[in-house]
Design brief:
By secondary structure, this protein is of the alpha/beta class. It is 41% helix and 12% strand.
Length: 270
């Protein structure tokens, strides 16, 4: 579910810029009219509660959310109908909703995954110029974790030749543990297709720090959709070892199980 259309984070690698999504004026945030009424109508028709993922194409905690509060209102509706929620976000504003997310999590699956690509704020500002600083995202994670919300890091995408170093990977894993996160997810690569490929390459060419990186992408990946880091195997070993050191979950099945185990199961009378 996406309550908004477009995004202000300006991430140079964003897959949602791809032509296949047909989103015009992508950098302009627009809220969807009557979205809360439509949501309640849909929820009322459901026979059984489930888990709704919100903000996959347009971040639920964008610049407009602070005044419109559509995400917070949607969370209230999901709670009323006993639904759980999964939120991928770069928005430090997610900490504002720690109260309702923690309350929802006592009865249904709830998780917040912070999308973080670069541990260094300076590099992050080049790659995600409109997004909150990485340090603020980890501060929000800490606040949510302290409230009892299941949260962690979505370390995707991993940009070949830019963020696929041992140092960056380990710094993000360490900071997740220090911030009370329970998991780190990483696919060790990125995606490129028509629309976002051209935007990404143009951004690389404009930034002196990224001199020569575009050519490495062209030579390494051509027109491939899946662009895995050449160091993926080595990084996986380093990643696995550090996650296990901090007892962080890093496999989807284990994370899904842990989210579900948070919720009590009503016993049945036979």
């Amino acid at each position: 579910m996406n309550l908004y259309r477009g995004c202000n984070h300006g991430c140079v690698y964003c897959d949602t810029r791809s032509e296949c999504y047909g989103i015009d004026r992508f950098d302009e945030i627009r809220h969807k009219e009557n979205c809360l009424d439509m949501l309640e109508r849909e929820l009322r028709q459901k026979r059984r509660p489930g888990v709704v993922s919100i903000g996959a194409a347009s971040d639920s905690y964008n610049a407009a959310e602070e005044t419109l509060s559509l995400t917070r209102q949607a969370l209230r509706l999901l709670k009323r109908y006993s639904f759980g929620v999964g939120i991928p976000t770069k928005g430090a504003l997610a900490a504002r909703d720690a109260d309702i997310l923690a309350e929802m999590g006592r009865a249904a699956p709830v998780y917040v995954s912070f999308s973080i690509t670069a541990a260094e704020d300076a590099l992050s500002r080049l790659l995600e110029p409109g997004a909150p600083a990485v340090s603020l995202r980890f501060a929000a994670m800490k606040e949510l974790a302290s409230a009892g919300v299941f949260t962690g890091t979505w370390l995707n995408p991993m940009l070949p030749f830019l963020t696929d170093s041992d140092e960056n990977l380990l710094a993000l894993v360490d900071e997740t543990a220090a911030s009370g996160g329970r998991f780190v997810i990483c696919h060790f690569g990125m995606t490129l297709r028509g629309g976002n490929r051209e935007y990404f390459y143009a951004a690389l060419e404009k930034e002196p720090r990224f001199m020569g990186v575009k050519q490495r992408y062209v030579e390494s990946f051509g027109l491939q959709y899946q662009c895995a880091s050449p160091r993926a195997d080595q990084l996986w070993r380093v990643f696995q070892e550090r996650c296990e050191k901090w007892k962080l979950l890093y496999r989807f099945r284990d994370i899904a199980r842990a989210v579900g185990e948070q919720n009590p199961v009503q016993m049945r009378f036979l």
